Amino acid sequence: MGITKTIGFSEVVIEMADILKVLGHPARLSIMEYLANSPSCICNDLVEELPLAQPTISRHLSELKRVGLIQGQISGKNICYCINPKKWNKVLLHFKMITTSLSIKKQC
Amino acid sequence: MGITKTIGFSEVVIEMADILKVLGHPARLSIMEYLANSPSCICNDLVEELPLAQPTISRHLSELKRVGLIQGQISGKNICYCINPKKWNKVLLHFKMITTSLSIKKQC
DNA sequence: TTCCCATATTGCAATATTACAATATGTTTT
DNA sequence: AAAACATATTGTAATATTGCAATATGGGAA
């Protein structure tokens, strides 16, 4: 099929899985890391930074935007893309939650 | 194309993206959470727990195993699947690293 | 206005993913 | 050995994802 079944899963899991899936691509993960590190966050830098064509990068950016991981603001001719810290922390928190459960439990 | 370009990206990013992609599915994320919380970790529980058929769950388990997030040990008739804490911590660490870079940088 | 520049969108073609029925494999129980 | 159980594998059909060329859009510069 290729279609992901969502009925029977909690909303939280579905949303988190969607976010992780978006993060689960070399280009998109690189974009996140680039945005986290670079002082400026102009999109055009990415076209030179990544080994992908401009339309492809644009698509990846819009996926990141769709799940709320980044937000873009028009700044004259360019667009200033930044990480959305709230969303990012939500993901981090989810990971920490699983880690806590894991550390409590004894390994088999 | 459907094929993910990897040339031009670092090995670390490629591996991490692969792991996140695997985590980015409701069934697989649920499996990780179930394994983190349940004291036992027998696979057959999952068939009752998740809204998916047994072969589908088996496939998801093998994906999680492929990237090293879980490890399975045969225990008589059953298989005991557990989270691989080392791999999990590696992922968590990567997230924390990005978070650190993010917090240092000023938002635009 | 016309010409650039930065970014988005569209339209493919190729490949990947997902789900499940059917079947296979291997182990314990009877 | 046969039956029952747990899990894996295979085959297949439907859908999703990816990448890029071509094109569109929209702002600033000339």
SS elements, strand count of chain A: 2
Q: Which band does the percent of strand residues of chain A land in?
A: 5-15%
**Uncertain residue ranges of chain A:** none
Full CATH superfamily name of chain A: Winged helix-like DNA-binding domain superfamily/Winged helix DNA-binding domain
Radius of gyration of chain A over alpha carbons? 16 Å
Mind summarizing the main beta sheet of chain A?
2 strands, antiparallel
Alpha carbon gap, first and last residue of chain A: 35 Å
Order of helices and strands of chain A: HHHHEEH
Oligomer: homodimer
Helical proportion of chain A, percent range: 55-70%
Strands of the largest sheet of chain A, in order across it? 1-2
Q: Tell me, what is the CATH class of chain A?
A: Mainly Alpha
- What is the CATH topology assignment of chain A? Arc Repressor Mutant, subunit A
Considering the chains and any ligands shown, give keywords for the structure.
homodimer, 108 residues, mainly alpha, two-stranded antiparallel ribbon, globular, DNA-binding
Describe it:
The structure is a homodimer of 108-residue chains. With 108 residues, chain A is mainly α. The first copy, chain A, has 5 helices and 2 strands. Chain A has helices spanning 11-23, 26-37, 43-49, 54-66, 85-104; strands spanning 70-75, 78-83. The first copy, chain A, is globular. Chain A starts with 10 loop residues before the first helix and ends with a helix. Chain A binds a DNA duplex (30 and 30 nucleotides) through helix 3 and helix 4.
